[in-house]
Design goal:
Layout lengths: L5 H8 L6 E5 L5 H9 L4 E6 L2 H13 L6 E5 L13 E7 L1 H9 L10 E6 L3 H10 L2 E11 L2 E10 L6 H6 L1 H6 L2 H17 L8 H17 L3
Parallel strand pairs: 1-2, 1-4, 2-3, 4-5
Antiparallel strand pairs: 5-7, 6-7
Helix pairs in contact: 4-5, 8-9
Length: 224
């Protein structure tokens, strides 16, 4: 069994047996190899926009003798990918604006995709808001600490639910659970925003107001 980071293992936990899926931004293909080894009856397309990354993925896939089980595609997002029959898409290790751009550019291609498994590096409130606007709701979300970095993994499903601004910012399930790791993440976010806020030009009213609202929410969560 191939070894994975804790982050990638947690992402893999969200994939069901018998899935037909695409891993966008597969990097070296380690997650895809693990999924084929771990899950039953997986159909998998591994894609990346970077030719070097995809070549490395191909080498790793060949090393484990899985050339016939993992299809590799050089593609900018979903541009070159046929999503017919696909029920799951994984996108991890990218910024939320990039992820949203990939999905919004191909709304027709994802209309029958039941599940999105997303691990973004930033702006998670933006990500949650945008994906709920195109007909996905948050089914599950978790935090995982890997190499001293706290990652958020979110499982979206087809359907509609209403979320408050607070839920979109913190994550409805993370907020409800209020774990020690969640508190740690909030502390780090608050420190970052408090350092950043004074540097926002005073004429950038919207940006200043939005940032200060986040600071207030974080302080309340942390009872400060």
């Amino acid at each position: 069994m191939i070894k994975l980071s804790d982050r990638l293992k947690k992402i893999a936990d969200y994939v069901n047996d018998d899935s037909s899926m695409i891993d966008i931004g597969c990097d070296h293909g380690l997650l895809d190899i693990y999924l084929i080894q771990k899950k039953k009856n997986i159909k998998l397309i591994a894609s990346d926009v970077n030719p070097n990354a995809l070549n490395n993925a191909k080498k790793n896939i060949k090393k484990y003798g899985l050339e016939n089980k993992i299809t590799t595609v050089l593609s900018n997002g979903l541009d070159e990918i046929d999503t017919t029959g696909v029920d799951t898409i994984i996108i991890s290790g990218m910024g939320s604006h990039t992820i949203v751009g990939i999905l919004y550019n191909h709304l027709r291609k994802i209309k029958n995709v039941k599940q999105l498994i997303i691990q973004s590096n930033n702006d998670l409130d933006f990500l949650r808001y945008k994906l709920t606007k195109i007909g996905y709701y948050i089914e599950k979300e978790e935090l995982v600490k890997d190499a001293d970095i706290i990652y958020t993994i979110i499982q979206f499903r087809h359907g509609y639910r209403f979320y408050t601004k607070k839920q979109l910012y913190f994550g409805p399930y993370l907020l409800k659970e209020n774990s020690n790791l969640f508190q740690e993440k909030c502390q780090l976010e608050l420190k970052k925003l408090e350092q950043f806020y004074p540097m926002i030009p005073k004429n950038h009213y919207h940006h200043r107001r939005k940032t200060y609202q986040k600071i207030k929410m974080l302080r309340k969560i942390l009872n400060q």
